[in-house]
Design goal:
Keywords: Iron, Iron-sulfur, Metal-binding. This protein is an alpha/beta fold. It has 27 helices and 25 strands. The relative contact order is 0.16.
Amino acid sequence: MALAKLNFADGPDVRRTFCTLCPQHCGMLFHVDGDGNPLAFDGDRNNPVANGKLCIKGTTAIEIHHHDDRLNYPLKRVGKRGEGKWERISWEQAMDEIAEKLRELREKDGPESVATLGGTHKTPGDWASWRWAADFGTPNFVSQGRNCGVGEYIAEVSVYGWDTVYQSYYPGKTKCIVIWGSNPAESSPPSFERLRQCQAQGAKLIVVDPRRTKTAERADLHLQVRPRTDGALALGLIHVMIRDDIYDKEFVEQWCTGFDEVEAEAAKWTPERTEEITGVPAADVVKAAHMYATLGPARLSFGVAATQLGEGASRSAVLGRAILRAISGNLDRPGGEPLGNPYDADTFAWLPNINFEKLVDHPLRTRESVNAHETPITSISGYQAFREATGKVYPQGHTGTAYVLFASQPAIYRAVTRQDPYPVKAIIVQCGEPLLSMGAGKDAYEAFTSENLELLVTMDMWMTPTAQLSDYVLPAADFMERADLSAHWGIGNFFVVGQQVATTVGERRNDYDLWAELGRRLSDDPDYWPETVEGMFDRFLEPSGKTYREWADGEVNHRFTKPVFYKYRERGFATPSGKVELVPSMFERFGIEARPVYTGPPYSIPDAPEEEYPLQMIPGSRVRELTASNLRQSARLRRIHPEPLCDIHPDTAAKYGVTDGEWMIIERPEGAIRQRARFDASLRRDTVNPDGYWWNPDQQRYEPHLSGVWVSNANAITPGAPELSSFAGDQPLRGARCRVRAGDAPAVPAAVSG
């Protein structure tokens, strides 16, 4: 199981794939024996994602593959939900029974009565679930990307017709980098390595984060913003750029609309007022604006935190960042803010094989998504509006189209419990843990245990808390047990192909099989679903002139689209006006405040009274050894990170009687959780940083314990009310008000065997 120096050319006993234990998809090589058992691994030096480097998560691959707690056979509930009584059944029986129930619900309550909740990036699972939803007729589908980028995608595409999300900075070309709301030192080692290369060649670094992260430690300027005030900071930077005449006036005059409105709004945000709201010193606001505007080319990188701020805070943050990218003149500039290129026509058939158009015109679908009445821009109507706007430049549409269609998880839960705006009767959860990673965990629990829910199916590698409540539990293959193709949700504009490395254990199946087998039982076109995932990959890869097998076994197993810059000079921007809309007409069309008006602390709609809950919590920060709720089973990783930790400033801790290294209680109106205090003198005094997504697979399964899901899970106490979510339906996962106090160790029930 140790690392070994491997080369793909060494022969058939060395197989090549990529790791999906996090979304980076670093290349890996495995040495296998004659029975297909992985013996050793190494990084793939010919894979351009990480050039042969592996993080600590990737080194657990063989441990995870052989783990005693893995699910190996389909299970059917025979007792009460959550009671833990199961009958082992065949995969065929499970598919027959689940499909029959789905058919019954579609005929009785319409296809919209079925919802899907996707999880972490199991590559066939996301796109296959979307293809299935479009084929079945339900708009109520979600993947984990719903929590990461919906607001950002919608804002960027509304402003300049495409996005910059998956684009990187370039050593030797990028002269200024702004990391805003992310920490690539922990979340993206390949990106962090490229950042270091840029700095070695002279690039300056600005980091916007309430914490002094490992990335912030490398910064030339750290803007320690108060949580949920990012929009105010963006306006302060815009103010300085306009006031000091350091914006790209020629680009703005030729290519932008709405500048006068932006200028009027930004005029209110002097550096001094910005400091008052954000806590960032006025002098640093001025310095940051000049660095970003004058050192260029500059790259203001995407970070998930801004999409998770809730209410108006998220809107003003993502819109403000888009405006900064535009007026700086960095859009689609080498080394600056590249607008991602769609797949070449001779490379990859992404959108035609997802086929969202089938969902739009589905003969059985009569209703919008369950959240359309709350956030209409994320709906079938929103999708159609964006297709119309972008179609002049991108006839097939935006490759990240799913981000305009994702339903809101809390809206799905309310459709179950309140049957508002219509009933949702079935939920399929695939390789995700909504109780832990999707926010509003208690709302999810109420839905999953509701008598209104007639079917709950979970497919996963583990008996997760949600699986423990399910009617059917299906065993998922790990990345070594399946053929694979990474297209990063269609937004990366590249693909990497992976071989199946290991022989499948038991009846574990790859994620595609779930949707394909249900699809073949329920679709009006049996040929819509190829028999194998390799057959589906062939359809994606057909324009490249090679089959999946030819790519998988060939000397090179990837293709990256060569970037093309300044595309707008020939065809304009993919917006209704053909220009950069600093005040986007798409927002106006859907009743959203289109000016970068700041709405944030102090809120007009507070999530909790400030006098009772004086602190703000920012859970969800990434740590290198874990991916959200995943990998808790690894003995190696648990030795490094055995317990949930909450960062707190020593002065704040002293004020509330909290001791370093001891247990503390974090409370909100939704309830309380317990984590160990970890003093951090660099953290803002008004902020605490709890570990997110925490559960303990060794704790007692099934009701009422559910493997400790309520003990330390930050998302058990995040709010899910629609009025607190963002304009795009993103939940307020970061910055919610809380209070803390000293606490005893949580009562931990005795562990039970699997």
